[in-house]
Design a protein that fits this description.
This protein folds into 2 domains: about 5-155, Glutaredoxin, CATH 3.40.30.10; about 160-315, Alpha Horseshoe (Serine Threonine Protein Phosphatase 5, Tetratricopeptide repeat). The chain has 14 helices and 5 strands. The protein has helices at about 5-10, 25, 35-45, 60-70, 70-80, 100-110, 140-165, 170-180, 185-200, 210-230, 235-250, 255-270, 275-285, 290-320; strands spanning about 30, 45-55, 80-90, 120, 130. The protein has a 5-stranded mixed beta sheet, sandwiched between helices. Strand 4 and strand 5 (about 130) form a beta hairpin. The protein starts with a helix and ends in a 6-residue tail after the last helix.
Length: about 325
């Protein structure tokens, strides 16, 4: 993966936000430009703490900022180790510059942020090692928690550096311990090189790293392929690759449902109702109570309702088209 901050150099948002609050000194340390914050982190050697939030429309985000993030009890210890970034995702983006909107969308997609508020911890190069969110605890306690995560991240970076001088099982074990455990395939997105080196060093399979890392790497490749097919409107290829991914990795549960929903989207683009319904039924069959299963059932119910309505309209049209009965 390319250096996140180098990609973001394309974005020219370099302002520092000021927020009217009682803790004005603390608030002034927050950046709203990731590009600027990343440059400062690289120069200072600090890590990045990035908050993805929506304080003007999500109550929890507002409470999180007012009760914890903006207080000196959090800001002072946290800013000793981190350059702080607060990215606001507004419902109404009418007053924002397009480059700001694009930068924030890029970051949200790159780090697979799925909800607000989310706290992301990365090194100065943008490689993540910790993800957290709001916790109803005192500001100083949250600061200590975050600093503990930072210490753990620094230790993992040391292990990865030391692993470069090792060979065989020792190298594999140290790489395994140094790669952060992150949600979904995020670890593979940012630590793929280390994962592949660990699998190679675990040549006898004693640590079972191939079984652990290969599916994560494959999921990254699949996601990248889906993004490309979507950009290029290659829906048939999306179907073919999705079928191959399910088959080759024997996907089950939410992983299979997610791929099936991608297939549903491709069939919808192709206006193939039979394919759409087939995918949705398979999603529901896999697990009707999962979020994917519930969403698929709702879509099926809507499709059935539309079909019934269409049939009724067709019947009415046929009835009105019949010649009047002879008297």
């Amino acid at each position: 993966m390319k250096h996140i901050s180098s990609i973001l150099a394309l974005f020219l948002t370099c302002s520092v936000m000021t927020i009217p609050t009682a803790a004005q000194d603390a608030a002034a340390k927050w950046h709203d430009s990731y590009t600027e914050a990343a440059a400062e982190a690289e120069q200072s050697g600090k890590d990045l703490l990035v908050v993805f939030t929506g304080t003007n429309w999500i109550e929890m985000c507002k409470v999180f900022y007012n009760d914890i993030l903006s207080t000196p009890a959090f800001m002072n210890p946290a800013s000793a180790k981190f350059v702080l970034v607060k990215l606001e995702y507004n419902k109404d983006t009418g007053g924002e510059e397009q480059d700001q909107i694009s930068q924030k969308r890029f970051l949200k997609d790159s780090y697979r942020i799925s909800g607000f508020p989310t706290v992301l911890l990365t090194d100065a190069a943008g490689r993540p090692y910790g993800i957290n969110g709001y916790q109803p605890i005192a500001a100083n306690e949250y600061a200590n928690f975050i600093l503990g995560m930072q210490a753990s991240g620094a230790k993992k970076r040391t292990l990865l550096a030391q692993a470069a001088n090792l060979q065989g099982p020792e190298k594999a074990k140290m790489l395994m311990e140094g790669i952060p455990k992150l949600p979904g395939n995020l670890s593979a997105r940012f630590y793929r090189k280390e994962m592949e080196a660990a699998v190679q060093a675990d040549s006898d399979g004693a640590l079972k790293l191939k079984e652990q890392f290969d599916p994560l790497i494959a999921d990254v490749d699949y996601a990248n392929a889906m993004a490309k097919f979507t950009r290029d409107t290659e829906w048939i290829k999306m179907l073919e690759v999705s079928d191959g991914y399910i088959r080759d990795y024997n996907l089950t549960g939410p992983n299979k449902q997610r791929v099936l929903m991608n297939k549903f989207g491709a069939y919808r683009r192709l206006d193939n109702l039979e394919g759409m319904v087939s995918c949705l039924l398979e999603v529901v069959k896999e697990d009707p109570k999962s979020p994917f299963g519930e969403d698929a059932q709702k879509i099926l119910d809507n499709l059935r309702a539309k079909k019934i309505e269409q049939d009724m309209q067709n019947k009415q049209s046929q009835e009105s088209a019949k010649p009047p009965a002879a008297e």
